[in-house]
Amino acid sequence: LNGVEKKIKVNKAISCNTCGGSGAQAGSGSFNTCGTCKGAGQVKRVTSSFLGQMQTITTCPTCNGEGQTIVNKCKACTGSGTQQSEEVISIQIPAGVAEGMQLNVQGKGNAAERGGIPGDLLVIIEEVEHPSLVRDGDHLIHDLYISFIDATLGTSVEIPTLDGKAKVKLDPGTQAGKVLRLKGKGLPNIQGYGTGDQFVHIHVWTPTKLAKEEKEWFENNRDNANFKPTEREKEGGFFKRVRDMFS
Fold first, then answer.
1. Coil/strand/helix, residue 29
2. Phi and psi of 54, rounded to 5°?
3. What are phi and psi of 242, to 5 degrees?
4. CB of 187 within 8 A of CB of 2?
5. Percentage helix, strand, coil, to 5, in the chain?
6. What is the pLDDT of residues 205-242, one digit of tens each?
7. Distances (CA, A) of 154 to 10, 87, 146, 171, 218
8. By the 8 A CB rule, do 66 and 41 touch?
9. What is the DSSP string of 156-193?
10. pTM to 2 decimal places
11. Can you name the residues that pair with 157 across neighbouring β-strands?
């Protein structure tokens, strides 16, 4: 809803603390020009074919393209310039992220060998489900169960939202399947395109056990015209009713 800063501990390759990432033993500073490529970092090979001579250029296999070799390698990192360690990294999670989204934290991945450019840290978002709200993109859905009496007489109820409780008034004669819309009570769009809504889906609970007097009352009113359902145009499913709200 609001975004958050998280700190995570990552086991990764970091710059060697002993040699500072150079790969050379501390105090020696011994680097020699590569004898294979003469410091160019590349080697040229010329081969002959029926088409004539062909020249190929490849990375030097001796120095791996660095143009120099280490005389005295650092004993801590054996010349790689990196070592495994844990690092605590702060990550800013933007508002509106969703399950499966990937965040790219530049420069917080593995350190490159001998002072190269470090990689990035890729963070995959996993979203914990809310106990009473279901997410649908930027919108939220809440299933509200009310009694037959409240549906008949109307009532006021409190609805859970991400930022507290919201009071909703239900009119007398509220039908099962009705959808209420709480504008702006959804999640912010991660691209900044506004905020979603929260939809309240009404379910009318039918009692399964009745006392003798209650059952008699219902039996006496079975044929009452006020208790007879009237034909209504088919409303369709929940998501159709939600779409109709925006049309």
1. coil
2. -120, 135
3. -65, -45
4. no
5. 10, 40, 50
6. 988 888 999 899 888 988 888 888 776 655 556 666 66
7. 55, 58, 10, 5, 19
8. yes
9. EEEEEETTEEEEEEEPTTPPTT-EEEETT-S-B-TTSS
10. 0.69
11. 168
